[in-house]
Design goal:
The chain is mainly α and about 120 residues long. The chain is built from 2 helices and 3 strands; from the N terminus they run H-E-E-H-E. It is elongated, with a radius of gyration of 26 Å. A 3-stranded antiparallel β-sheet has the order 2-1-3, with no helix packed on it. It folds into 2 domains: about 40 residues; about 60 residues, no CATH class.
């Protein structure tokens, strides 16, 4: 009978350890989720006038020209423009140098009225 108590204690200890591990995993996931929902790539960027971006004959980036007045598209366009096309004082890093170096795919801008890629 004295051997049953150590076994019960070991089982209780394993259950407690398992519960603590599960609690830590849930807490870690909650902290990571909270951090992801509170992050902003480039907050408070000024609005960039609408235009189209092209790389190798393909239109790229948020299509502000066909979604004028949509605040979500405007915000995405501002971030795209700031980080890939023209870096400003608001940038979190340089504009993509590989798209502005004369080698390979280059980014080109046209007015909204142009709906075919530039030559």
């Amino acid at each position: 009978m004295s051997e049953a108590h150590p076994i019960k204690s070991a089982i209780k200890a394993r259950r407690l350890f398992g519960l603590v591990c599960v609690a830590l995993l849930i807490a870690s996931a909650a902290v990571l989720a909270l951090g992801a929902t509170r992050g902003h790539a480039d907050p408070n960027l000024p609005n960039v006038p609408p235009h189209r971006h092209w790389i190798n004959g393909q239109q790229v980036g948020p299509d502000i020209c066909d979604n004028l007045g949509d605040p979500g598209t405007q915000h995405a366009f501002n971030e795209f423009h700031n980080n890939l096309h023209v870096a400003t004082g608001f940038s979190i890093g340089p504009a993509a140098p590989g798209l502005h170096n004369g080698h390979g795919g280059e980014i080109a801008a046209t007015p909204c009225s142009v709906t075919t890629p530039p030559n």
